[in-house]
Design a protein that fits this description.
The complex is a heterodimer. By secondary structure, chain A is α+β, with helices and mostly antiparallel strands. Chain A has 14 helices and 12 strands. Chain A folds into 3 domains: 5-139, no CATH class; 145-202, no CATH class; 208-364, Jelly Rolls. Helices cover 39% and strands 21% of the residues of chain A. In chain A, a hairpin with a 2-residue loop joins β2 and β3. Chain B has a single domain (5-410), classed as YVTN repeat-like/Quinoprotein amine dehydrogenase (Methylamine Dehydrogenase, Chain H, 7 Propeller), CATH 2.130.10. In chain B, a hairpin with a 2-residue loop joins β23 and β24. A 5-stranded mixed β-sheet of chain B has the order 1-27-28-29-30, with no helix packed on it. A 4-stranded antiparallel β-sheet of chain B has the order 2-33-32-31. Chain B has a 4-stranded antiparallel β-sheet with strand order 3-4-5-6, with no helix packed on it. By secondary structure, chain B is mainly beta. The chains are: A alpha+beta, B mainly beta. The A-B interface holds A 38, 40-43, 45-46, 48-49, 52-53, 56, 75-76, 78-80, 82-84, 86-87, 90, 93, 115, 126, 149, 184, 186, 300, 313, 315-318, 320-323, 326-327 and B 1, 3, 87, 106-111, 113, 115, 117, 119, 144, 146, 152-159, 162-163, 165-166, 168-171, 190-192, 199-200, 203-206, 214, 216.
Chain lengths: 375, 411
């Protein structure tokens, strides 16, 4: 960190919108700023290492202030701050008991960093496990996924116990409540399975909020993987009514609607099982307002994604695996019509496990709550 | 952090027994600072381990808070281990245990900043940490890399998967770390943004970053000495093997006849035993290495080769242990072990210690005419990681436990 940037960082710390910020002692402001300044490729590591020693050597009574300092920190800095707090907590184990009230206050303020609040919960558990456990049900709709996940699991476990005891009505109600709160795929699938076993219908497609109505075009070439960096016609402008040159003659856009519970857009359906090819899918997505979102993709083929013509990300890995929300791409919706364009590439492999030429995509908030097109 | 229940129970139950044997065990304390030990070849030449194993040989067994394929490393009286936890394996742990009794000395946790998706069998903590005696360095499948001093104080943190966002493998990354001449070598090779980095061991900053073949690679780097005594690191890939100057990242020589992307090269007696076209032995020198011999019959499976007493041993996934003459590659004998195997055998006191995926530890006496299993120990859990040797003991980890095997009474 340069001498010019430090005052700016200190000023920034003072201006952070902490709703209930624990006061940071003057002596810790500069070390906190140094640790928060770490960035990519180890930039700031040298200054941060010296600052970390000061933070880790401080008194446990400052843990709530250090937790507050995690608000707005980048992912590198969160880890530096976490390890400093853990080190203090280990060194002054007995002192944590004196911070129980402050940790509870911190947890109660959902404006704080989700990760800082999760760490506060872990510290509270060490200081007073009973008190921490009693707070858990209150995290069912928490903005922090780690806390929310634990509360969802507690409720789902309780529902399962009710089901086992034969109290179906209560079990179904609790499972449905847990399903509405769940944001992570494994929990959604697990709860949906148990509801199905109780005779309840779960619309997985709707629960996940997949984008299901697409227009697709292809095939284009991908011999030797060269299609990844080749901008075929759809990348140069979307003309849904126009024909263009494909791999073996003229190709045109056609409608494709995914009927899959998992929103799969399977290029093998319209184009048959081809190898060394490229396909595109485009979807309109309507929004009432401008808002930040995540475009979440699962794909085991090579792929690229654009939103409103802006390239978000791409990856040229083939057939190493797929899962829901495998890739989370930060994006910005504009009010009104948006267009998502996905390029999906199949390679030359012929093994049974390389047949798939498909993707799944949904739009969510940062927590994973589905956002659906308003039209 | 003994207040955590999973440690408290284990420690309380075993404290007394451990205390009784600890003096005898720690008298033989030594270091095992990286995957396959300080020499990087899996051999602990001056260590005697028990060869007749039974349940009494287990000095202690500790419950772990997370999964891992990584081997424990041992520095002095401390055993370090990496692990990962959470449904997404995105909580990264570094654990430090007391060698004497397995009690937890400290634990640090980090949030993964890179992608954590892996094949079920790999998980988040596949690469083995390393140590230069001052610090320990841990790398995870997410390509997060952390340096801590031996007391658990953070020295630096790098998110290589965040810095280079296409550097990941959806099946998981498993290349272990090596450190030499103040440079930590992290092999981050995959289908997309593929590289190996030399990081400054003190600061974590890039000393060099070398583009590598765009191909998934689970092998680990091997250290060797160059002609002028400088440290080289052998980087294996589907294309072959490159010897790179640890300090600069410059490629010193290259072997381009292809190699496996799973078992790793073993360096022994100045030669490189490369899983290439079966098994190929290279002798470094000049601008390109000299091929001494090649044996399709000695092709290793997932396990890497081991060289001991003028013989080379390879193990296939099913459990066939092949013994060849290290001088010419002639296959001498084969022994069927109980498989399947993912881990690499280690050797101590002239015996091989092989643990299969089912957690069956098998001790092999290779001096017998066609080799022979002299004892077995059932650990009762899946084991995919390679054992470590230090303090007169063998250390084995599963996803749930860390064992120290080598009670004084069994020696």
């Amino acid at each position: 960190m340069t001498s010019r940037s430090l005052p700016r960082l200190l000023a920034g710390l003072a201006l952070l919108p902490f709703a209930h910020a624990e006061p940071l002692p003057e002596s810790l402001r500069e070390p906190v700023a140094a640790v928060r300044a770490v960035s990519a490729e180890g930039r700031g590591n040298v200054a941060a290492a010296a600052a970390w020693q000061k933070l880790a050597g401080t008194d446990a009574k400052h843990i709530p202030a250090l937790l507050t300092a995690m608000d707005g920190a980048n992912d590198y800095a969160l880890n530096w701050l976490r390890s400093a707090i853990e080190t203090i907590a280990d060194r002054q184990r007995g002192a944590l008991a004196e911070s129980v009230a402050a940790l509870e206050r911190f947890l109660g303020d959902t404006g704080h960093s989700p990760r800082a609040r999760r760490l506060a919960f872990e510290l509270l558990t060490r200081a007073d496990a009973t008190k921490a456990s009693a707070l858990l049900p209150g995290f069912l709709n928490d903005p922090g996924n780690e806390l929310r996940r634990a509360a969802v699991q507690q409720l789902a476990d309780a529902a399962a116990a009710k089901a086992k005891a034969g109290d179906k009505a209560v079990a179904v109600g609790d499972f449905q409540k847990a399903l509405a709160a769940a944001r992570e795929a494994d929990q959604i699938e697990g709860i949906a399975k148990q509801l199905t076993e109780l005779g309840e219908k779960v619309d997985l497609q709707k629960t996940f909020g997949w984008v299901t109505r697409w227009k697709v075009i292809g095939p284009f070439d991908n011999t030797g993987g060269a299609g990844f960096n080749q901008a075929f016609a759809p990348e140069q402008g979307l003309e849904f009514s126009a024909e263009t040159d494909g791999l073996k003659g003229k190709v045109s856009w056609r409608d494709f609607e995914s009927k899959s519970d998992y929103g799969l857009v399977d290029f093998n359906q319209p184009f048959t099982s081809l190898k060394s090819v490229t396909g595109y899918a485009a979807a309109e997505f309507w929004s009432d307002s401008a808002r930040p979102v995540e475009v979440r993709l699962g794909c085991k083929n090579g792929w690229k994604v654009w939103l409103n013509g802006k390239f978000l990300f791409g990856r040229d890995e083939y057939h190493r695996g797929v899962e829901i929300d495998q890739y989370r791409l930060a994006a910005q919706l504009q009010p009104g019509r948006n267009v998502i364009l996905v390029k999906c590439l199949q390679n030359e492999q012929t093994e049974d496990w390389t047949k798939e030429w498909e993707f799944q995509l949904r739009v969510t908030d940062a927590q994973g709550t589905p956002i659906v097109s308003t039209k | 952090m003994n207040s955590f229940p999973f440690f408290r129970t284990a420690a309380r139950n075993r404290w007394l027994a451990a205390a009784v044997v600890s003096l005898a065990l720690t008298a033989q304390a030594d270091n095992w600072t990286q995957w396959r030990g300080p020499l990087g070849n899996g051999v602990a030449p001056d260590v005697k381990l028990p060869t007749q194993l039974d349940a009494q040989a287990i000095a202690w067994a500790i419950d772990l808070p997370g999964r891992g394929l990584s081997s424990p490393i041992i520095v002095g009286e401390r055993v370090f281990l990496s692990a990962s936890s959470g449904v997404k394996q995105d909580r990264l742990h570094v654990l430090c245990f007391n060698l004497a009794d397995g009690s937890l000395r400290w634990e640090r946790q980090f949030w993964a900043t890179g992608r954590t998706m892996t094949h079920e069998k790999i998980g988040g903590a596949a690469p083995t940490p390393t140590s230069d005696g001052e610090r320990i360095y841990a790398l995870y499948s997410s390509n997060d890399c952390v340096a801590l001093d031996l007391d658990g104080n953070l020295v630096w943190f790098r998110g290589l998967g965040r810095d280079y966002p296409n550097a990941s493998n959806s099946l998981g990354m498993s290349s272990s770390l090596v450190v030499a001449e103040g440079v930590l070598v992290a092999q981050v090779e995959n289908d997309s943004e593929s590289f190996t980095a030399g990081l400054d061991a003190k600061t974590g900053e890039n000393r060099w970053k070398l583009d590598r073949p765009k191909k998934a690679n689970w092998t680990s780097p091997s250290l060797l000495k160059g002609a002028d005594g400088r440290s080289l690191v052998a980087l294996q890939s589907a294309k072959g093997l490159a010897a790179v100057d640890v300090r600069t990242g410059a490629v010193v020589w290259n072997y381009g006849e292809g190699a496996s992307t799973v078992p790793s090269t073993t360096v022994a007696d100045g030669k490189l035993y490369v899983p290439s076209n079966g098994l190929t032995v290279l002798e470094p020198g000049g601008e390109s290495p000299k091929q001494l011999w090649r044996s399709p019959q000695l092709r290793p499976g997932t396990s890497s080769p081991l060289v001991l007493g003028g013989k080379v041993f390879t193990l296939n996934d099913g459990g066939i242990l092949s013994c060849g003459d290290a001088a010419d590659g002639k296959r001498l004998w084969q022994l069927r072990l109980k498989g399947p195997f993912s881990s690499t055998p280690v050797a101590a006191g002239g015996f091989l210690y092989c643990v299969n995926e089912k957690g069956l530890l098998q001790v092999v006496d290779p001096s017998l005419t066609e080799g022979g299993v002299v004892s077995e120990l059932e650990l009762g859990q899946e084991v995919l990681g390679t054992p470590s040797v230090a303090g007169g003991s063998l250390f084995v980890r599963s996803d749930r436990k860390l064992w120290r095997i080598g009670r004084a009474s069994a020696l």
